[in-house]
Design goal:
single chain; 351 residues; alpha/beta; seven-stranded mixed beta sheet; 13 helices; 20 strands; globular
């Protein structure tokens, strides 16, 4: 089967089959997923990792260097292919993680689209003291070669590194304050260690009482989960990203709060569960591309996960076509608040 994504199309034309290499943050592409050769896969996207597991590949969801060192899927790889993400800070996290987990001198390939930021990879590799050699260019993509090196905490925590906070190495786990709460973030998570205006508008318009059993879908850094739990709700939360799940758990712990937090591609981990409220700031991008898929599934499947009279409340950019989706799923909805950029919608399941 031929590759579908540009980065995989570039890899497909290389001489090497990357036998026993680690595929880091690989995109969903049947070329490698359906391969009869078992791959080693390290990623944070639950949907892709689960698809790789179902296809018979070895997978890891490790979110810390210690967990990665203890995982043979990662630690015994002969090399690593890093698919460069839109969030350059997350790309640096993957590079530093590989230097911390794999022996010095282990070969690394970095691949990505030009308009997805792969040109930044060369500068980041060199800033980390790693080699950087361009191997190939095609399909508006670039392929770079490098190798792991011994990297001390002081070297990783350079002045530009997202893995350092106030000069201290944190493996990317940074804390910030919002709405009188301490929260945790990680490179690549939406919001970038600050309260985004859409979530702020959403929380300003949620009632502070009455949610006994609530679900936060797309939990991110956990601010919605913490807000709901602080106001007395029994909270469950899910996110497709393993980094987001860990950040939400850390945010809850920082505030002395509790919730049941799960890796979940929308409602996948909540089959049979019913809630009085579902609250979300759903994503509409996957890397560079607009992707309504997760939000459309959230809206269309929400009635199946609400008790009679339960509500779905979400915030979205004003231009997104969610009114039609809400109308189709619930029959009617209301706009609780709006600005020039955002709208907060609420729909209620019939009693």
């Amino acid at each position: 089967m031929s590759a579908q994504t540009p980065a995989c199309q570039l890899l497909e034309r290389q001489d090497s089959d990357f036998r026993d290499w680690l595929w880091v943050a690989a995109p969903r592409d049947d070329w490698w997923l359906s391969s009869d050769r078992q791959r080693r896969v390290w990623g944070h996207d639950t949907g892709i990792v689960n698809a790789a597991r179902e296809a018979g590949h070895r997978v890891s969801h490790a979110v810390s260097f210690a967990d990665a060192r203890a995982d043979d899927t990662i630690a015994q790889a002969a090399g690593a292919i890093v698919f460069w993400p839109k969030a350059h800070a997350l790309g640096e996290w993957w590079l530093v993680a590989l230097c911390q987990v794999l022996p010095a001198g282990t070969p690394i390939k970095v691949v990505g689209e030009v308009n997805g930021g792969i040109k930044r990879a060369e500068r980041i590799l060199k800033a980390l003291g790693m080699t950087a050699r361009k191997d190939d260019t095609a399909r508006r993509c670039q392929l770079w070669s490098s190798a792991t090196r011994e990297l001390t905490a002081e070297q990783a925590a350079n002045s530009e590194s997202p893995l350092a906070v106030a000069g201290q190495w944190t493996e990317g786990w940074g804390e910030f304050e919002a709405l009188e709460m301490r929260l945790t973030s990680h490179p690549g998570l939406y919001g970038n260690a600050k309260l985004d205006p859409g979530t702020a508008l959403l929380l300003e318009n949620l009632p502070t009482r009455g949610y006994k059993r609530a679900l936060d879908i797309g939990a991110g850094d956990g601010i919605i989960s913490c807000w709901l739990a602080r106001h007395g709700a029994r909270v469950m939360a899910g996110d497709v990203s393993a980094f987001a799940v860990e950040a939400t758990r850390r945010s809850l712990a920082l505030n002395g709060l509790e919730a049941d937090v799960r890796l979940s591609d929308v409602f996948a981990a909540f089959e049979g569960e019913r809630f009085e409220a579902i609250v979300a700031n759903p994503p509409f991008h996957h890397e560079r591309d607009i992707d309504y898929g997760p939000a459309a599934r959230l809206i269309s499947q929400a009635p199946d996960h609400l008790m009679p009279g339960g509500t779905l409340t979400l915030v979205a950019n004003a231009f997104l076509p969610y009114p039609d989706l809400l109308q189709a799923a619930f029959g009617e909805f209301e706009v609780l608040a709006e600005t020039r950029q955002f709208k907060v919608y609420r729909a209620r399941k019939a009693r």
